[in-house]
Structure to design on (107 residues):
């Protein structure tokens, strides 16, 4: 029974990481990937990364990393939110992280 509960929580974490990463990507896309988005921060931090030249799979992995990192660190990330929309969404992501922590510790 515990293995099933652990698998369920693992699936929830992966699913929420996917959605949070996808929403962060959509927020950056709404702003045309300007210098005031989290994508720009990754271009500065990763020397070989260029958003316009990278593959879809690499961008997806970057979004999944962003989502999982947001969930696992209560919103602490390599960069801070760069604009108001990212800041507001980060608050929501922190609440999801608290929910997942409560779900994990409550069982």
């Amino acid at each position: 029974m515990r293995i099933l509960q652990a698998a369920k929580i693992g699936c929830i974490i992966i699913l929420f990481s996917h959605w949070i990463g996808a929403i962060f990507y959509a927020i950056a896309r709404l702003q045309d990937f300007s210098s005031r988005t989290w994508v720009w921060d990754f271009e500065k931090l990763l020397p070989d990364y260029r958003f316009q030249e990278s593959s879809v799979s690499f961008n997806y992995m970057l979004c999944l990393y962003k989502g999982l990192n947001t969930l696992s660190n209560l919103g602490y990330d390599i960069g801070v939110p760069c604009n108001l929309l990212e800041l507001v969404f980060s608050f929501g992501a922190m609440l999801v992280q608290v929910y997942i922590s409560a779900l994990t510790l409550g069982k």
